[in-house]
Amino acid sequence: xxxxxxxSRLLVSAALAALLAAGLGGCQTVSDVTGxxxxxxxxxxxxxxxxxxxxxxxxxxxxxDPAIAVAYGQALRNNGQREQAVAVLEQATxxxxxxxxxxxxxxxxxxxxxxxxLAFDVLARAHSPDNPDWKLLSVQGTVLDQMGRHDEARRYxxxxxKIMPGEPSVLSNLGLSxxxxxxxxxxxxxxxxxxxxxxxxxxxxxxxxLVIGLQGRFAEAEQIARADLPPDEAAANxxxxxxxxxxxxxxxGKARNSTPMAALNQPD
Length: 268
Description:
By secondary structure, the chain is mainly alpha-helical. It has helices at about 10-20, 30-35, 50-60, 65-80, 80-95, 100-110, 115-125, 135-145, 150-165, 170-180, 185-195, 200-215, 220-225, 230-250.
């Protein structure tokens, strides 16, 4: 019998990665930065570990180059080396004072590592009120959510949506913000708007499935989850969610006041 997949495939992956990692929506991926560092014909490294090795070699050869430092920091984040990413990008900010691209990458790395207050301060320096970056506004919103400042976070999402109306990554973050305060109908409304976009990705769909499941509509949640997961994994995840909700209802005590998911843990 196939072992039930861990909750991370739906609960942690959907809620946490979207709230921070995906919520850092628009940040460069390894493949995004490859073209800026080498030939357009150069393929991206095959694995996160290999990317960390490749960009690490380039960084050690030229540690003051901001593009290389940002690429290396991103590769380290993708490989789960969050503390090292923070250290690399901190040095890059010192070597490239005022470079907004480096500051943005440093702020994202700090958020990944749970240094939320410093992350927010750094991200605020990475753009300005007269020239705001909607992606960074969304990141700042996720950081505020992680600090429990949900009303403030939603103002940042709203500002981002004024610049990029209908942007699914921002709507998804807004939905997760409402999910954290257990305003599930509002969460579903935001996520359905994101879901209806042609630019919606798997994270948006899984977040919507999660919010629908949290409202007890398990069959509908499973149907949405199946768009990105094998049927048995989608079913197992929804069954796990149902079990958690039922356990909280029966427990009545300490679990009752918490959302049945690891929404405030570190991203995967």
